[in-house]
Amino acid sequence: xxxxxxxxxxARDFGINIGRYPSGGHNAITDVRGVRVGHVTLSHGxxxxxxxRGPVRTGxxxxxxxxxxxxxxxxxxxxxxxxxxxxxxxxxxLAESGVLETPIAFTNTLNVGDVQAAMVDYMLSKYPxxxxxxxxxxxxxxxxxxxxxxxxxxxHVKRRHVLSALENASPGSVAEGGVGAGTGMVTYEFKxxxxxxxxxxxxxxGGYTVAVLLNSNHGKRHQLRVNGVAVGLEITDLKPxxxxxxxxxxxxATDAPLDSRQLxxxxxxxxxxxxxxxxxSMHSSGDVAMAFSTxxxxxxxxxxxxxxxxxxxxxxxxxxxxxxxxAAEEAVLNSMLAARTSVxxxxxxxxxxxxxxxxxxxAGAAGLKAVKK
Length: 373
Known about the structure:
Elements lengths: L35 E9 L11 E9 L8 E12 L3 E2 L1 H7 L1 E2 L3 E5 L3 H15 L13 E5 L14 H9 L18 E2 L2 E2 L1 E8 L8 E9 L13 H4 L12 E8 L5 H17 L9 E14 L18 H20 L4 E2 L5 E2 L4 H18 L1
Parallel strand pairs: 6-7, 12-13
Antiparallel strand pairs: 1-2, 2-6, 3-5, 3-13, 4-7, 8-9, 10-11, 11-12, 14-15
Helix pairs in contact: 2-3, 5-6
């Protein structure tokens, strides 16, 4: 369920190379060792919406952030909220404790409770002492509003879909665009959804990997910039007749040894990459990022009161900040370039960004730069 379609295009296919650092092998969040991604896509029905019955254009995407026992051996984590018109279940405890102890899920706004309940079921099945002789937990679930295309009132993402995404999560290539939680998402009034990208630092900067997976559902057309080119001012047609301003939710993964404070700073820099694509964080937008590191494992029930963790000095953190911004910018573009035109409830149509016109605009901008030189 995570394999990329052979016909799906990405920013690199358009000659867009953002930043100075190379990507990992898959140019995806799975380039951080141990990270797995799973999608379940729900797309059926057409025509006039019948609330509770469809048409359905939604889904769920999950990240299993590390190999091994995540509950008993947790990860350092942090978060950043650029604009809080939304919900991110489990984020309060993540920010307070500084650790991630469950998988991460993305879904639509009204399905947050259902998805979190399914994640609780998943954790209880793996750890039967939770809530009895062991602590309780609050799984991390982030949302975006897909009601432009989806019968969101139907809350069509069920327990079985979440469990399937978790059970089938895998490493390697990650499907992007209108898949999983991105099925009903709209980005700069084009089709958007799931996007991912990674950066690998040179050995002299630690050789660390920084990677992003996001669900893009934000922005107005005139704001869109692709690799610095004001594409949204040029492609003014192909707009939806009905559209709701949405949000973006972001997960950042790294194998660099960072603590919670530093990871919150890293999540903030990922949002700078989103902003490069034109986002200004509108009043109605829920723009939330979280970040985790696989470098250290934090014991759930430590034997000794003091434990040692490796930690990167802040004086060497700037390359990671740069990598996070670059990966997030490219992930937004990947989410749009991989997406296809989608017709949803009441015939609402969200068009894919036209690849041929985009190529011409980028080539024209490159030619103009060459002439000026």
